[in-house]
Specification:
heterodimer, A: 199 residues, mainly alpha, Cytochrome Bc1 Complex, Chain D, domain 2, two-stranded antiparallel ribbon, 5% strand, B: 416 residues, mainly beta, Sulfite Oxidase, Chain A, domain 2, Immunoglobulin-like, 3 domains, 5-stranded mixed beta sheet, 5-stranded antiparallel beta sheet, 8 helices, 26 strands
Chain lengths: 199, 416
């Protein structure tokens, strides 16, 4: 008798806990799912990251310019860096390769150049990506070796060669996010929906 | 007699030349041999030496070792290019891809990362920016899940029909992935409810980055440290990778070192210049994450030759949207379709094996497979896909593929 009362009590307590935890503000709102309900609010594993530790890795640049460092670049200076560090793989004028074309070819009657037409000038929707990508990944054989100054200069050079800015326009944290990229308007978010439609 | 023999090495050390150890052209097989001191080592055997084992019942076998080996007679290999390496789908059975045959795609090589120095930084729109070591990640509640991983640039055709399943779509593989749910870490750092996107960054020479909707992080994202029961292979992101079930390979950032919560996408090069596709009308589709439903017959396939009579048509089907509900087979070039048997359990966002028994009459024909997933989506023909995308090919190309079977039994790829 007492045993079964205990069990009913325990069951009610269990129900109560389940229901209250379902209603608790720590769930649902932040999207956590049912099987994490039994988890404590925090496990206490890991350690807080210091601002210095974050700054060491956080080099990304957003379209609004967040993340761009101080400094300013010029196409004329970028031309020199390009010739020394990039032309070998991307071609003297950024069109010839052997690796990705970086400049939209003006010679679109040449079939070989025509097939290499996805470039910064006609396909890239954001100018900030040029800075972000060169800084993190180029030159391919020495990634991460460029100074911010070199990256700014190269960005100015490539944007100018693609006819997106004037050769005299400075490129910095204020001007770069404002560069108008013609390809921006072509981009649409995923238009496929779950269902039978083929898209 | 037998006792004595067992104490001796199977092959004496002096018999193994440097050349055979290095595996010269004449190497026929690799077996474990045991030296007199009892230590096992790998030795390459030539064709003639293999004859030693003509009757395995007359020679003691190889003693237990510290690592299993693939039979010396089996040689499935990936097909590498400069930037990727493809899974030999035609050589596999069932649905789990052996880890060393998992496809590879990287953007500047496979990095060597010391697990003792590994750290994952999570920062940005969070209450507490935090750093987790590999040991920290392993202390959290874990989760395992069998699911496919496919590169979104996974279709190839050829006019002469000389393409294997590996060449057509070998950039898909399946593993059991184990790790900690990203939602668990999101709770730990206190992700802001205002955050809508996060950046995932790899610690390779490409310092690969992709933006991921935060919702996917809460839903089913896994921070993986294991694959098929052991630590993730270096090619798959050792020691830690992001795994987003059903989503295009590239966004499953390998060698994951940083996650930054934000309220907008970062528009990285890999989500603008690459992994976007022209869909007609001058439009370019972006953030197309989900892999559409697909299937491929892996047997019979090029370059095999089949014989008249019973053939079990086999293959795999999968969908990034959910479960495969049906695979249909045509053995008359698409005129009629019949359901294939699915091997259970059929799992969500997972390669599902199918088979269909067929009695070939020896007449030239085409065999095809197409799959239907739980959202009602039917794998399209190439023509339908091209029509839907303004004549463009590119990423997320999942057409039905046909195998043409000549009168002499030779199987050839055929586009639909």
């Amino acid at each position: 008798m007492t045993k079964s009362v205990f069990f009913i009590g325990a069951f009610c307590l269990f129900l109560f806990i389940t229901l209250t935890s379902l209603k608790s503000p720590t769930t649902g709102e932040n999207g956590s799912r049912a099987d994490t309900l039994a988890q404590p609010k925090t496990f206490g594993f890991g350690r807080p990251a210091t601002l210095k530790e974050i700054a060491l890795l956080d080099s990304d640049v957003r379209p609004d310019g967040k993340g761009l460092p101080a400094g300013s670049g010029k196409a004329a200076d970028g031309k020199l860096v390009y010739a020394a560090k990039c032309a070998g793989c991307h071609g003297v004028t950024g069109v010839e390769g052997p690796n990705d074309a970086l400049v939209t070819s003006k010679n679109l009657t040449d079939q070989k150049e025509k097939v290499r037409t996805k470039t910064i000038g006609n396909y890239w929707p954001y100018a900030t990506t040029v800075f972000d990508y060169i800084k993190r990944a180029m030159p391919f054989n020495q990634p991460g070796s460029l100074t911010d100054q070199e990256v700014y200069d190269l960005t100015a050079f490539l944007l100018a060669e693609n006819g997106l800015i004037k050769a005299s326009d400075p490129i910095n944290a204020t001007t770069l996010p404002k560069v108008v990229m013609p390809a921006r308007d072509f981009f649409v978010p995923d238009d496929r929906r779950n269902g039978p439609e083929i898209r | 007699m037998a006792e004595q023999k067992r104490d001796k090495p199977l092959i004496t050390e002096k018999k193994i030349s440097r050349r055979t150890l290095l595996g010269g052209a004449a190497t026929a097989a690799v077996v474990l041999a045991q030296t007199a001191s009892g230590k096992s080592f790998q030795a390459a055997l030539t064709e003639s030496e293999l004859n030693l084992f003509e009757d395995p019942t007359k020679v003691p076998g190889v003693p237990p070792g510290t690592l299993g080996t693939r039979s010396a007679f089996e040689k499935p290999v990936k097909a590498p290019s400069d930037i990727s390496s493809r899974t030999p789908l035609q050589d596999l059975f069932g649905t789990i891809t052996p880890s060393d045959l998992h496809f590879e795609r990287n953007h500047n090589g496979v990095p060597a990362i010391d697990p003792a120095k590994y750290e994952l930084l999570i920062h940005g729109m969070v209450d507490k920016p935090m750093i987790f070591t590999l040991a920290d990640l392993k202390r959290f509640p874990s989760v395992s899940r069998i699911a496919f991983l496919e590169c979104s640039g996974n279709y190839r055709g050829a006019a002469d029909g000389k393409l294997t399943p590996q060449q057509i779509c070998g950039l898909t593989s399946q593993s059991e992935w184990t790790g900690v749910k990203l939602s668990t870490l999101f709770r730990e750092v206190g992700v802001s409810p205002k955050s809508t996107w996060f950046l995932a960054e790899g610690g390779d020479a490409a310092v690969m980055t992709r933006s991921v909707p935060v919702e996917k992080g809460w839903e089913d994202a896994i921070i993986c440290y294991a694959q098929n029961g052991e630590a993730i292979r270096p090619e798959q992101g050792y020691p830690v990778r992001l795994f987003l079930p059903g989503w295009e390979g590239n966004i499953n950032i390998k060698w994951l070192r940083r996650i930054e919560l934000s309220d907008q996408p970062f528009q990285t090069r890999q989500e603008t210049s690459k992994y976007t596709e022209a869909i007609g009308g001058g439009k370019i589709r972006q953030f197309s994450f989900t892999m559409d439903a697909r299937s491929i017959i892996t047997y019979p396939s090029y370059p095999q030759k089949v014989e008249k009579g019973w053939i079990e048509i086999r293959g795999i089907a999968w969908s990034g949207r959910g479960k495969v509900v049906r695979v249909e087979i045509s053995t008359d070039a698409g005129k009629t379709w019949n359901p294939a048997s699915l091997q259970g359990p059929v799992m969500d966002k997972a390669h599902t094996a199918f088979r269909y028994l067929w009695n070939w009459n020896g007449q030239p024909t085409e065999i095809l497979s197409r799959t239907v997933d739980e959202t009602g989506y039917t794998q399209p023909f190439l023509k339908e896909l091209l029509a839907a995308r303004g004549g463009n090919m590119g990423y997320h190309f999942n057409p039905v593929t046909a195998w043409y079977i000549q009168g002499d039994g030779q199987v050839l790829f055929k586009a639909t």
